[in-house]
Amino acid sequence: SQKIEQNSEALNIQEGKTATLTCNYTNYSPAYLQWYRQDPGRGPVFLLLIRENEKEKRKERLKVTFDTTLKQSLFHITASQPADSATYLCALTMDSNYQLIWGAGTKLIIKP
Amino acid sequence: NAGVTQTPKFQVLKTGQSMTLQCAQDMNHEYMSWYRQDPGMGLRLIHYSVGAGITDQGEVPNGYNVSRSTTEDFPLRLLSAAPSQTSVYFCASSSPTGNTIYFGEGSWLTVV
Q1: Nearest CB to B104 within list A43, A98, A103
Q2: Residue B2 CB neighbours (<10 A)
Q3: If you write DSSP's letter for every residue of B5-67 in order, what string do you get?
């Protein structure tokens, strides 16, 4: 079956360290992949988009990689801060219909 | 700039009651959609619209109706509420290619 997997367990990281979140997928050939941040009681907020022909994308302290051979995307936050604590969602878009397929998200906790 | 506005924020319904979740966007986006978010699961698409007068079913459309009479508004109707519809509902809008999706703040619905 087609699915997207993100770590269901919370990820605890010490402030200042790099946090790395994983998004794995099977049976898809996505046109691009997106990462969103969701705070408790709020809607998801767009962070980064990476296309299938891109290996890496950066935005300030954020970095996303996309390996279509491994069917995996990694999301990195460098110099992490307690304010980075949130749930991070990945979503795939298929070129055929532009609809997004979502992972369940990984909760990130940055400890001071 | 309000973005995507959803109302109500919280609602409790009795089984069998009907109600409408309102959604409005002021970004002149053609594409609008409704998702539900349940614990441990990714966002699931209920219905979507690619423009005024055009709607289509998503992954979990049963028990819900939508209409799109204007570009700005995309209400979601629960026809006869069931406990299985207890969830958090998010309205979203984007450009036709869906590169960046803007979400509302969510509507927490409890059906008793």
Answers
A1: A43
A2: 9
A3: EEE-SEEEE-TT--EEEEEEESS--SEEEEEEE-TTS--EEEEEEEETTEEEE-SS-TTEEE-
B65 has a pLDDT exceeding 60: yes
pLDDT at A95 over 80: no
Residue A1's Cβ-side half-sphere holds a number of Cα atoms within 13 Å equal to 3
Identify the sign of the CA torsion B95, B97, B99, B101. Answer: positive
Q: Which of A6, A11, A5 is nearest to A107 (CA)?
A: A11
Question: CB distance A32–B90 less than 8 Å?
Answer: no
Count of C-beta atoms within a 10 Å radius of residue A6: 22
CB contact under 8 A, B42 and A49: no
Sign of CA dihedral A65, A67, A68, A71: negative
Which pLDDT tens digit goes with each residue over A26-62?
877 888 899 999 999 999 999 999 998 898 999 999 9
Residue type, A51: R
Residue A94 pLDDT greater than 80, yes or no: no
What is the structure's pLDDT at A96? 61
Tokens found for residue B16: 């069998």
Nearest C-alpha neighbor of B63 from the set B18, B24, B33: B18
